[in-house]
Amino acid sequence: MPWNNQSSGGGGWKGGNGGPWGQPPRSTGGGGGGPTPPDLEELLRRSQDRLKRVLPGGGRKLNPLTIIGILVIVAAIVAYNFFTFRVQPDEVGVVLFFGKYDRDAPPGLNFRLPYPIETVYTPRVTRVNRVTIGQFADDQASGTAGRDIPEESLMLTGDENIVDIDFSVFWVINNASNFLFSMEDPEGTVKAAAESAMREVVGRSDITPLLTQARQITETDVQKLIQDTMDGYGAGVQITQVQLLKVDPPGEVIASFRDVQAARADQERLQNEAQTYANRVIPEARGQASQITEAAIAYRDRLTNEAQGQADRFSQVLESYLASPDVTRRRMYLETLQEVFSTTDKVIIDESTGGTGVVPYLPLDQLNRNRNTPTTGTGDGR
User: Which among 41, 37, 187, 40 is positioned nearest to 127, based on CA atoms?
Assistant: First the structure.
Protein backbone atom coordinates (compact mmCIF):
# COMPACT_ATOMS: atom_id res chain seq x y z
CA MET A 1 0.00 0.00 0.00
CA PRO A 2 1.60 3.41 -0.97
CA TRP A 3 2.33 5.99 1.62
CA ASN A 4 0.03 9.03 1.53
CA ASN A 5 2.31 11.63 3.13
CA GLN A 6 5.19 11.54 0.73
CA SER A 7 7.38 14.64 0.19
CA SER A 8 6.61 17.02 -2.58
CA GLY A 9 9.74 16.16 -4.44
CA GLY A 10 8.99 12.45 -4.95
CA GLY A 11 6.09 10.43 -6.24
CA GLY A 12 6.84 6.99 -4.72
CA TRP A 13 6.35 4.13 -7.20
CA LYS A 14 3.78 6.12 -9.19
CA GLY A 15 6.11 7.77 -11.64
CA GLY A 16 9.16 9.92 -11.76
CA ASN A 17 12.38 8.76 -10.25
CA GLY A 18 11.11 8.13 -6.71
CA GLY A 19 12.27 5.02 -4.80
CA PRO A 20 10.21 2.59 -2.79
CA TRP A 21 10.55 4.64 0.42
CA GLY A 22 9.40 7.89 -1.27
CA GLN A 23 12.98 9.29 -1.85
CA PRO A 24 14.59 9.84 -5.24
CA PRO A 25 17.62 7.66 -5.91
CA ARG A 26 20.93 9.24 -5.10
CA SER A 27 23.88 9.46 -7.51
CA THR A 28 27.06 7.71 -6.44
CA GLY A 29 29.32 9.94 -8.50
CA GLY A 30 30.99 6.96 -10.10
CA GLY A 31 28.36 6.49 -12.72
CA GLY A 32 27.12 3.11 -11.34
CA GLY A 33 23.76 4.27 -9.89
CA GLY A 34 21.97 1.95 -7.44
CA PRO A 35 19.31 2.22 -4.68
CA THR A 36 20.43 3.77 -1.45
CA PRO A 37 19.32 2.56 2.02
CA PRO A 38 16.11 4.16 3.33
CA ASP A 39 16.28 7.09 5.68
CA LEU A 40 15.42 5.65 9.13
CA GLU A 41 14.29 8.97 10.55
CA GLU A 42 11.96 9.51 7.64
CA LEU A 43 10.63 5.92 8.00
CA LEU A 44 9.98 6.42 11.72
CA ARG A 45 8.24 9.72 11.07
CA ARG A 46 5.97 8.25 8.44
CA SER A 47 5.13 5.27 10.74
CA GLN A 48 4.29 7.68 13.53
CA ASP A 49 2.00 9.62 11.20
CA ARG A 50 0.15 6.44 10.24
CA LEU A 51 -0.19 5.40 13.91
CA LYS A 52 -1.65 8.82 14.71
CA ARG A 53 -4.34 8.33 12.11
CA VAL A 54 -5.19 4.87 13.53
CA LEU A 55 -5.31 5.91 17.21
CA PRO A 56 -7.95 8.27 18.61
CA GLY A 57 -6.90 11.91 18.63
CA GLY A 58 -4.49 11.39 15.81
CA GLY A 59 -3.73 15.10 15.53
CA ARG A 60 -1.74 15.16 18.75
CA LYS A 61 1.92 14.34 18.92
CA LEU A 62 2.61 10.99 20.56
CA ASN A 63 5.11 10.53 23.35
CA PRO A 64 7.85 7.99 22.54
CA LEU A 65 7.04 6.22 25.84
CA THR A 66 3.47 5.80 24.62
CA ILE A 67 4.71 4.25 21.42
CA ILE A 68 6.96 1.91 23.39
CA GLY A 69 4.04 0.94 25.66
CA ILE A 70 1.86 0.21 22.65
CA LEU A 71 4.62 -1.87 21.12
CA VAL A 72 5.01 -3.79 24.41
CA ILE A 73 1.26 -4.50 24.48
CA VAL A 74 1.33 -5.68 20.89
CA ALA A 75 4.35 -7.84 21.66
CA ALA A 76 2.57 -9.31 24.70
CA ILE A 77 -0.49 -10.14 22.61
CA VAL A 78 1.66 -11.78 19.99
CA ALA A 79 3.60 -13.72 22.65
CA TYR A 80 0.33 -14.85 24.27
CA ASN A 81 -0.98 -16.15 20.96
CA PHE A 82 2.23 -17.79 19.82
CA PHE A 83 3.86 -18.96 23.08
CA THR A 84 0.93 -20.08 25.28
CA PHE A 85 -2.02 -22.42 24.94
CA ARG A 86 -5.02 -23.26 27.13
CA VAL A 87 -6.10 -26.76 28.16
CA GLN A 88 -9.75 -27.19 29.21
CA PRO A 89 -10.68 -29.05 32.45
CA ASP A 90 -11.83 -32.15 30.55
CA GLU A 91 -8.71 -32.22 28.35
CA VAL A 92 -5.01 -32.99 28.63
CA GLY A 93 -2.36 -31.31 26.50
CA VAL A 94 0.07 -33.50 24.56
CA VAL A 95 3.13 -31.48 23.50
CA LEU A 96 5.33 -32.62 20.63
CA PHE A 97 8.83 -31.27 20.18
CA PHE A 98 9.64 -31.38 16.46
CA GLY A 99 7.04 -34.13 16.06
CA LYS A 100 8.27 -36.28 18.98
CA TYR A 101 6.30 -36.70 22.19
CA ASP A 102 7.77 -34.44 24.88
CA ARG A 103 5.33 -34.00 27.79
CA ASP A 104 1.74 -33.77 28.99
CA ALA A 105 0.29 -30.40 29.90
CA PRO A 106 -2.28 -30.16 32.73
CA PRO A 107 -5.53 -28.18 32.44
CA GLY A 108 -5.02 -24.41 32.47
CA LEU A 109 -2.66 -21.99 30.74
CA ASN A 110 0.62 -23.54 29.58
CA PHE A 111 3.74 -22.34 27.79
CA ARG A 112 4.97 -23.65 24.46
CA LEU A 113 7.39 -22.79 21.74
CA PRO A 114 5.84 -21.58 18.47
CA TYR A 115 4.99 -23.90 15.63
CA PRO A 116 6.71 -25.87 14.11
CA ILE A 117 9.03 -26.27 17.08
CA GLU A 118 6.28 -27.53 19.38
CA THR A 119 2.84 -28.83 18.47
CA VAL A 120 -0.01 -29.33 20.94
CA TYR A 121 -2.96 -31.76 20.85
CA THR A 122 -5.75 -31.57 23.42
CA PRO A 123 -7.87 -34.76 23.47
CA ARG A 124 -10.83 -34.93 25.86
CA VAL A 125 -9.91 -37.56 28.44
CA THR A 126 -12.96 -37.38 30.74
CA ARG A 127 -15.66 -37.74 28.09
CA VAL A 128 -17.31 -41.18 28.05
CA ASN A 129 -17.40 -42.42 24.46
CA ARG A 130 -19.91 -44.97 23.23
CA VAL A 131 -19.73 -47.51 20.42
CA THR A 132 -22.78 -49.64 19.57
CA ILE A 133 -22.51 -52.90 17.67
CA GLY A 134 -25.54 -54.23 15.81
CA GLN A 135 -27.42 -50.95 15.22
CA PHE A 136 -27.16 -48.03 12.84
CA ALA A 137 -25.76 -44.71 14.04
CA ASP A 138 -29.14 -42.91 14.11
CA ASP A 139 -30.57 -45.63 16.36
CA GLN A 140 -27.59 -45.32 18.68
CA ALA A 141 -28.22 -41.59 19.09
CA SER A 142 -31.90 -42.06 19.88
CA GLY A 143 -31.18 -44.83 22.37
CA THR A 144 -33.91 -47.09 20.93
CA ALA A 145 -33.56 -50.55 19.44
CA GLY A 146 -34.22 -49.91 15.77
CA ARG A 147 -32.70 -51.16 12.56
CA ASP A 148 -30.24 -53.96 13.01
CA ILE A 149 -27.01 -54.66 11.19
CA PRO A 150 -27.20 -58.45 10.73
CA GLU A 151 -23.54 -58.65 9.74
CA GLU A 152 -22.61 -57.42 13.21
CA SER A 153 -25.42 -58.77 15.42
CA LEU A 154 -25.90 -62.37 14.27
CA MET A 155 -23.59 -64.75 16.15
CA LEU A 156 -23.20 -68.51 16.56
CA THR A 157 -23.37 -69.97 20.08
CA GLY A 158 -21.48 -72.92 21.47
CA ASP A 159 -24.50 -75.26 21.06
CA GLU A 160 -24.79 -74.29 17.35
CA ASN A 161 -27.70 -71.87 17.68
CA ILE A 162 -27.89 -68.43 16.13
CA VAL A 163 -28.49 -65.45 18.41
CA ASP A 164 -29.08 -61.79 17.55
CA ILE A 165 -27.12 -59.55 19.96
CA ASP A 166 -26.95 -55.75 20.07
CA PHE A 167 -24.66 -54.19 22.67
CA SER A 168 -22.86 -50.96 23.53
CA VAL A 169 -19.30 -50.38 24.72
CA PHE A 170 -18.42 -47.33 26.84
CA TRP A 171 -14.78 -46.19 26.97
CA VAL A 172 -12.58 -43.27 28.01
CA ILE A 173 -9.01 -42.19 27.29
CA ASN A 174 -6.56 -43.13 30.05
CA ASN A 175 -3.31 -42.41 28.17
CA ALA A 176 -3.53 -39.47 25.79
CA SER A 177 -0.21 -39.97 23.99
CA ASN A 178 -0.87 -43.65 23.29
CA PHE A 179 -4.40 -42.83 22.18
CA LEU A 180 -3.17 -40.20 19.68
CA PHE A 181 -0.30 -42.10 18.15
CA SER A 182 -1.03 -45.84 18.55
CA MET A 183 -4.30 -45.99 16.61
CA GLU A 184 -5.33 -44.34 13.37
CA ASP A 185 -9.06 -44.93 13.94
CA PRO A 186 -9.73 -45.29 17.69
CA GLU A 187 -13.49 -45.70 17.47
CA GLY A 188 -13.24 -48.24 14.65
CA THR A 189 -10.57 -50.19 16.55
CA VAL A 190 -12.71 -50.33 19.71
CA LYS A 191 -15.71 -51.44 17.67
CA ALA A 192 -13.78 -54.21 15.89
CA ALA A 193 -12.25 -55.44 19.17
CA ALA A 194 -15.68 -55.40 20.86
CA GLU A 195 -17.34 -57.42 18.08
CA SER A 196 -14.51 -59.94 18.10
CA ALA A 197 -14.65 -60.32 21.90
CA MET A 198 -18.44 -60.78 21.92
CA ARG A 199 -18.25 -63.46 19.22
CA GLU A 200 -15.59 -65.31 21.21
CA VAL A 201 -17.61 -65.25 24.44
CA VAL A 202 -20.86 -66.23 22.69
CA GLY A 203 -19.06 -68.99 20.79
CA ARG A 204 -18.20 -70.81 24.00
CA SER A 205 -21.63 -70.32 25.66
CA ASP A 206 -25.00 -72.00 25.21
CA ILE A 207 -27.96 -69.99 24.04
CA THR A 208 -30.19 -70.61 27.06
CA PRO A 209 -27.88 -68.94 29.65
CA LEU A 210 -27.36 -66.02 27.26
CA LEU A 211 -31.10 -65.41 27.14
CA THR A 212 -31.66 -65.80 30.90
CA GLN A 213 -29.33 -65.59 33.87
CA ALA A 214 -25.89 -65.25 32.21
CA ARG A 215 -26.26 -61.73 30.79
CA GLN A 216 -24.20 -60.05 33.50
CA ILE A 217 -21.52 -62.73 33.30
CA THR A 218 -21.35 -62.24 29.52
CA GLU A 219 -20.96 -58.48 29.91
CA THR A 220 -18.12 -58.91 32.40
CA ASP A 221 -16.27 -61.45 30.25
CA VAL A 222 -16.58 -59.32 27.11
CA GLN A 223 -15.38 -56.19 28.93
CA LYS A 224 -12.29 -58.00 30.22
CA LEU A 225 -11.49 -59.45 26.81
CA ILE A 226 -11.83 -56.05 25.07
CA GLN A 227 -9.60 -54.43 27.69
CA ASP A 228 -6.94 -57.11 27.22
CA THR A 229 -7.03 -56.56 23.46
CA MET A 230 -6.74 -52.76 23.73
CA ASP A 231 -3.91 -53.07 26.25
CA GLY A 232 -2.12 -55.33 23.80
CA TYR A 233 -2.41 -52.59 21.18
CA GLY A 234 -1.16 -49.96 23.65
CA ALA A 235 -4.22 -47.92 22.70
CA GLY A 236 -4.50 -45.83 25.87
CA VAL A 237 -8.20 -46.71 26.18
CA GLN A 238 -10.08 -47.82 29.33
CA ILE A 239 -13.27 -49.88 28.79
CA THR A 240 -15.69 -48.78 31.50
CA GLN A 241 -18.80 -50.82 30.68
CA VAL A 242 -20.33 -53.32 28.25
CA GLN A 243 -24.13 -53.20 28.07
CA LEU A 244 -26.27 -55.80 26.30
CA LEU A 245 -29.14 -54.04 24.53
CA LYS A 246 -30.89 -57.02 22.94
CA VAL A 247 -30.35 -60.78 23.07
CA ASP A 248 -32.93 -62.63 20.94
CA PRO A 249 -33.09 -65.47 18.45
CA PRO A 250 -33.28 -64.41 14.79
CA GLY A 251 -36.64 -63.01 13.76
CA GLU A 252 -37.27 -65.80 11.26
CA VAL A 253 -37.27 -68.52 13.94
CA ILE A 254 -38.30 -66.60 17.05
CA ALA A 255 -41.80 -68.13 17.13
CA SER A 256 -40.48 -71.69 17.00
CA PHE A 257 -37.80 -70.82 19.50
CA ARG A 258 -40.40 -69.51 21.92
CA ASP A 259 -42.33 -72.78 21.56
CA VAL A 260 -39.18 -74.69 22.40
CA GLN A 261 -38.55 -72.44 25.38
CA ALA A 262 -42.13 -72.97 26.57
CA ALA A 263 -41.70 -76.73 26.29
CA ARG A 264 -38.46 -76.52 28.26
CA ALA A 265 -40.22 -74.44 30.89
CA ASP A 266 -42.97 -77.09 31.17
CA GLN A 267 -40.31 -79.77 31.43
CA GLU A 268 -38.58 -77.93 34.24
CA ARG A 269 -41.92 -77.34 35.97
CA LEU A 270 -42.81 -81.05 35.84
CA GLN A 271 -39.36 -81.98 37.05
CA ASN A 272 -39.73 -79.60 39.96
CA GLU A 273 -43.13 -81.04 40.83
CA ALA A 274 -41.74 -84.58 40.70
CA GLN A 275 -38.82 -83.53 42.85
CA THR A 276 -41.23 -81.97 45.34
CA TYR A 277 -43.29 -85.18 45.49
CA ALA A 278 -40.12 -87.22 45.94
CA ASN A 279 -38.96 -84.91 48.70
CA ARG A 280 -42.27 -85.47 50.49
CA VAL A 281 -42.68 -89.25 49.95
CA ILE A 282 -39.12 -90.39 50.51
CA PRO A 283 -38.87 -88.97 54.06
CA GLU A 284 -42.23 -90.55 54.93
CA ALA A 285 -41.05 -93.93 53.61
CA ARG A 286 -37.81 -93.60 55.47
CA GLY A 287 -39.72 -92.78 58.67
CA GLN A 288 -41.97 -95.82 58.26
CA ALA A 289 -38.99 -98.06 57.54
CA SER A 290 -37.24 -96.73 60.61
CA GLN A 291 -40.38 -97.32 62.69
CA ILE A 292 -40.71 -100.94 61.50
CA THR A 293 -37.02 -101.52 62.13
CA GLU A 294 -37.30 -100.15 65.65
CA ALA A 295 -40.39 -102.32 66.34
CA ALA A 296 -38.60 -105.44 65.08
CA ILE A 297 -35.62 -104.65 67.26
CA ALA A 298 -37.90 -104.18 70.28
CA TYR A 299 -39.71 -107.48 69.56
CA ARG A 300 -36.40 -109.27 69.22
CA ASP A 301 -35.15 -107.83 72.47
CA ARG A 302 -38.39 -108.80 74.25
CA LEU A 303 -38.26 -112.41 73.06
CA THR A 304 -34.62 -112.62 73.86
CA ASN A 305 -35.20 -111.31 77.36
CA GLU A 306 -38.15 -113.67 77.93
CA ALA A 307 -36.16 -116.65 76.71
CA GLN A 308 -33.28 -115.64 78.88
CA GLY A 309 -35.64 -115.27 81.88
CA GLN A 310 -37.16 -118.69 81.27
CA ALA A 311 -33.73 -120.22 80.94
CA ASP A 312 -32.68 -118.58 84.19
CA ARG A 313 -35.89 -119.80 85.87
CA PHE A 314 -35.31 -123.34 84.62
CA SER A 315 -31.78 -123.22 85.96
CA GLN A 316 -33.07 -122.08 89.33
CA VAL A 317 -35.72 -124.87 89.35
CA LEU A 318 -33.05 -127.38 88.48
CA GLU A 319 -30.92 -126.21 91.32
CA SER A 320 -33.92 -126.47 93.69
CA TYR A 321 -34.77 -129.95 92.38
CA LEU A 322 -31.23 -131.14 92.89
CA ALA A 323 -31.33 -129.81 96.44
CA SER A 324 -34.74 -131.39 97.44
CA PRO A 325 -36.34 -133.52 94.72
CA ASP A 326 -39.58 -134.48 96.53
CA VAL A 327 -40.55 -131.00 97.58
CA THR A 328 -39.67 -129.56 94.19
CA ARG A 329 -41.58 -132.25 92.33
CA ARG A 330 -44.69 -131.67 94.42
CA ARG A 331 -44.44 -127.90 94.04
CA MET A 332 -44.09 -128.23 90.27
CA TYR A 333 -47.10 -130.56 90.20
CA LEU A 334 -49.24 -128.11 92.17
CA GLU A 335 -48.14 -125.15 90.04
CA THR A 336 -48.95 -127.07 86.87
CA LEU A 337 -52.42 -127.98 88.13
CA GLN A 338 -53.00 -124.39 89.13
CA GLU A 339 -52.04 -123.20 85.68
CA VAL A 340 -54.25 -125.77 83.96
CA PHE A 341 -57.36 -125.47 86.17
CA SER A 342 -57.26 -121.66 86.23
CA THR A 343 -58.48 -121.52 82.62
CA THR A 344 -61.02 -124.44 82.52
CA ASP A 345 -64.50 -125.22 83.87
CA LYS A 346 -64.36 -127.40 87.00
CA VAL A 347 -66.81 -129.95 88.42
CA ILE A 348 -65.99 -131.60 91.74
CA ILE A 349 -67.33 -135.10 92.50
CA ASP A 350 -66.87 -136.61 95.91
CA GLU A 351 -66.04 -140.29 95.55
CA SER A 352 -66.15 -140.93 99.28
CA THR A 353 -69.92 -141.56 99.25
CA GLY A 354 -69.33 -145.13 98.19
CA GLY A 355 -72.24 -146.99 96.60
CA THR A 356 -75.11 -144.92 97.97
CA GLY A 357 -75.96 -143.76 94.49
CA VAL A 358 -75.81 -140.07 95.46
CA VAL A 359 -73.50 -138.03 93.28
CA PRO A 360 -72.48 -134.83 95.06
CA TYR A 361 -72.23 -132.09 92.42
CA LEU A 362 -70.49 -128.73 92.96
CA PRO A 363 -70.60 -126.45 89.84
CA LEU A 364 -67.90 -124.00 90.79
CA ASP A 365 -68.00 -122.17 87.47
CA GLN A 366 -71.70 -121.43 87.84
CA LEU A 367 -71.19 -120.19 91.38
CA ASN A 368 -68.43 -117.88 90.26
CA ARG A 369 -70.58 -116.62 87.34
CA ASN A 370 -73.55 -115.91 89.63
CA ARG A 371 -71.26 -114.19 92.09
CA ASN A 372 -69.92 -111.87 89.41
CA THR A 373 -73.42 -111.04 88.01
CA PRO A 374 -75.07 -108.13 89.88
CA THR A 375 -78.63 -108.72 91.23
CA THR A 376 -81.43 -106.28 90.46
CA GLY A 377 -84.32 -105.50 92.77
CA THR A 378 -87.97 -106.56 92.03
CA GLY A 379 -91.10 -104.48 92.13
CA ASP A 380 -92.47 -106.02 95.35
CA GLY A 381 -89.45 -105.15 97.37
CA ARG A 382 -88.29 -108.74 97.89
Answer: 187
